[in-house]
Amino acid sequence: MVKSIKLSDGTTIPWLAFGTGTALYKQDCTDATSLALSLGLTHIDAAQMYENEDGVGTALSASGLPRSALYITTKLNKISEGETVESTLRSSLKKLKVDHVDLFLVHVPTQHTDLKKVWKDMAQLEEIISLGLENPVVNQIEYHPLVADKLAPLIAFSREHGITTASYGGLTPILPSRIKSSELSTVRENIISTLTTIGSTRGSATPNQILLKWLQSQGVIAVTTSSKESRLKEYLDAENLAELSEEELDTIRKSIGGVHFRAFASFSHMDENN
């Protein structure tokens, strides 16, 4: 069973989640989600924007797992004219084939002209256990070693206020599909070398596993995905590795050589070097 992190509202959340975005974005994710569930990945990270909540729901229903064994996250998309927070949530619940979600996040806060009203409306819905905003318990962001230095103030602020960080794109530094420039390729090679060295002290743990352990060692929820059984098992096995030491965390930080790179949405005030 995947270990859990206690949130500030008293609930718990599995630290490793199966994401239905990225490669599964706007794709039928039924089989991939079913595979994840069968392997013990019971925290499913969905979103209205991904347009595949119905596939998640089919997999959840077919799994035979009781609702109490599942942790379901979904995210509020931009609200269209004539819709409300409540109506979009009820649509999600119908597609997911559940009567409540464990965590409801605002996917892209800048899409909402009256964010305070959105937060208030979310807080009034009984079908939501925990919120990502408004008495926030989770803030999901792109987080990995290549953005860690510039996000350090945000991580510190979140910890101070009892907000748990969740990471998407946590494996970005070692993915050739994300790291394309010659400068970043050199950094990628450095990071892989460092992660491999650290992994060798843990029974040949893979760079993927050490990056996931890098997140877990900081109390960060890791959202990742794959349609390959071997890869999902690899991710799950990361949990059994020894925690990274402060020295190892520092070694990983130094391996990037001060380079900053965000693979997904970028922000001019902090991504001038992107």
Automatic annotation (TrEMBL):
The active site is at residue 50. InterPro entries: AKR, NAD(P)_OxRdtase_dom_sf, NADP_OxRdtase_dom. Substrate binds at residue 107. Keywords: NADP, Oxidoreductase. The record marks 75 as: Lowers pKa of active site Tyr. The keyword DNA repair does not apply. The keyword Nucleotide-binding does not apply. It comes from the Eukaryota. Residues 20-126 form the NADP-dependent oxidoreductase domain. One of its GO terms (molecular function) is oxidoreductase activity, acting on the CH-OH group of donors, NAD or NADP as acceptor. Belongs to the aldo/keto reductase family. This is Aldo keto reductase.
